[in-house]
Write the C-alpha cells for this entry.
Amino acid sequence: MIRLLVGILVFVINTIYRDRPYPRFYVLETVARVPYFSYLSVLHLYETLGLWRKIDWLKVHFAESWNELHHLLIMESLGGDAFWGDQLLAKTTALIYYWIIVVLYFITPRSAYHFMELVEQHAYISYHKFLTANEAELKLQPAPVVAIGYYRDGDLYMFDAFQTSHHLSERRPKIENLYDVFVAIRDDEMEHVKTMQACQNTNTQFSFNSSHTWEIQPVDLTNSEVNFSSNIPEKAEN
C-alpha cells in the first residue's frame, strides 16, 4: 500500500510536470511537508490524552516541516505556483495525503515513516537530475531572498534540529546563486531520508532524540560548598 501511494504521487508528478520543473517542485514540496503535519497531529493527540509524551519527536518533526516550508517558499518565489491549476492539484493532493498518513500513523508509525522515506528519496533524485541537467544556467541566476534568509542569514537553530545524522554539529550550505540553493534543497532531502530511516529503527520510541538534546548530569553536593547568594544580583548603586 505504501509503495502504491508513493507510486501514484510520482506518476502524476512525472506525467503532468515533465517539462515544468518549478511547478513540479512546487507540487512536490506542498505534498512533501504534509506527512510531518500528520505526525505532529497524532503526537499532540497522544500527549493531550496522556498516553505518550516525547518532546524530541515533536521538535524534530516540526523542524522538518519548517525546512519543507522554506523549500515551498523558494519554489513560490520562482513562480512555481503561478497557475491556479497547479495550486488546486497540490492542495487537493496534500489534503488527501494528510488524512491517509494520520490514519496510517495511528495504525503503524513505522509504515508512515517508510512512506515519507520513499517520498524524500524521490525528491532527492528529482533535484539531483535537475541540477545535473541545468548546472550552467542555474549558476548564472541569483539566489532568492527567502533562500538567503533561511540558509545563511536567518535563525539557523531549527535548520540544525531536523538533521539527526549531524549530532552536535552544523551543516552550513554555501548560498551564492540559484545552483547553490538547489544543492542545499537536494541535500536537505537526503537528511530527511536519514531521519525517516532513524525513526523506523527498533526501540526508536525510547532512543530517538533531536540533534540538540542533552541530558542533565546529577551533581554531587556531598563534599561541595555551595554559595546560594552567588547568583543573586547586587543592588544597583544610584
User: Anything to note?
Assistant: Residues 109-139 form the longest helix (31 residues). DSSP finds ten helices and no strands in the chain. Residues 220 and 226 are 11 Å apart (CA to CA).
